[in-house]
């Protein structure tokens, strides 16, 4: 018995890296999988739809069920076509993992409008375009599970990634709202902040020219995501998990006790109570071991 026996899963950006690892593990656990990938370069240019087919061929050769889809997640029609691939081939959708992404890293002053638009379009709009048609299907067919990929770059910040960080923070907002709206339809929505060694992260500072930690390879991140989409996580929605070489942990937005005067106050009074307003120690992403991905 597999954790996903009889279920149908869509994984975007599954032609390599994390998405490929998710798709293969889901298939091993009994799911029929739609492997979506446009096959573009890391910066979003170009297309090679053979990437998705290669993953499908490997899944089928191992005895699984899968179909390739090469549509662009960042368009409404692309999202509709991805859903249609699942329905035409497998008749339903139980699981969606929005994983597709690109990078165009620049310091904020050097970010062009094209850099901004491309990254926001693929990550944030792409999550919307893919999730919306699947959401409507799940809403009318008993529910399902969605995992939307955020990042520590959006949750904590990372130098040179204002466009990427903004998109990933927006996805966190989507998770929170969609989880609330999905309750009455039995739709679970969770967020994922992965820390993995892939083509997206291989040349980031601290990783370039270094052998990767085996625990940071995609196949060692995938079990955490399998947990999230399976019935093992049936009691959890609206939460975001960090999954990295350090394991699996929940990431939460928290607040201080704060300055609570209960009356009109001045800016000077806020300054005088700064110890109550601010956390004493800022969160250090490097200390947490959540290298953005």
TrEMBL record:
InterPro entries: KR_dom, NAD(P)-bd_dom_sf, Peroxisomal_Beta-Oxidation, Sc_DH/Rdtase_CS, SDR_fam. Transmembrane segments: none annotated. One of its GO terms (molecular function) is oxidoreductase activity. Residues 7-183 form the Ketoreductase domain. SUPFAM superfamilies: NAD(P)-binding Rossmann-fold domains. Keywords: Oxidoreductase. Belongs to the short-chain dehydrogenases/reductases (SDR) family. This is Short-chain dehydrogenase. It comes from Phenylobacterium soli.
């Amino acid at each position: 018995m597999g954790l996903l026996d009889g279920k149908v899963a869509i994984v975007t950006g599954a032609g390599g890296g994390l998405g490929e690892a998710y798709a293969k593990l889901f298939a091993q656990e009994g799911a029929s999988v739609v492997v979506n990938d446009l096959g573009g370069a890391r910066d979003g240019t170009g297309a090679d739809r053979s990437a998705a087919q290669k993953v499908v061929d490997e899944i089928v050769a191992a005895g699984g069920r899968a179909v390739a889809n090469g549509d662009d997640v960042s368009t409404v029609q692309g999202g509709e076509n991805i859903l249609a691939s699942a329905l035409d081939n497998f008749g339903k959708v139980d699981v969606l993992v929005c994983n597709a992404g690109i990078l165009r890293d620049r310091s904020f002053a050097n970010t062009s409008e094209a850099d901004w638009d491309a990254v926001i379009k693929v990550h944030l709009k792409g999550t919307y375009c893919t999730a919306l048609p699947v959401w409507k299907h799940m809403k009318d067919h008993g529910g399902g599970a969605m995992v939307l990929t955020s990042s520590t770059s959006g949750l904590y910040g990372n130098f040179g990634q204002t466009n990427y960080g903004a998109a990933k923070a927006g996805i966190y907002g989507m998770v929170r709202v969609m989880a609330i709206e999905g309750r009455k339809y039995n739709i679970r929505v969770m967020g994922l902040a992965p820390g993995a060694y892939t083509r997206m992260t291989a040349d980031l500072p601290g990783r370039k020219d270094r052998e990767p930690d085996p625990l940071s390879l995609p196949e060692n991140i995938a079990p955490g995501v399998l947990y999230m989409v399976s019935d093992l996580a049936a009691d959890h929605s609206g939460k975001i998990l960090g999954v990295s070489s350090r394991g699996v942990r929940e990431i939460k937005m928290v607040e201080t006790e704060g300055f609570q005067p209960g009356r009109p106050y001045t800016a000077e009074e806020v300054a005088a109570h700064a110890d109550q307003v601010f956390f004493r120690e800022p969160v250090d992403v490097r200390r947490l071991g959540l290298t953005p991905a």
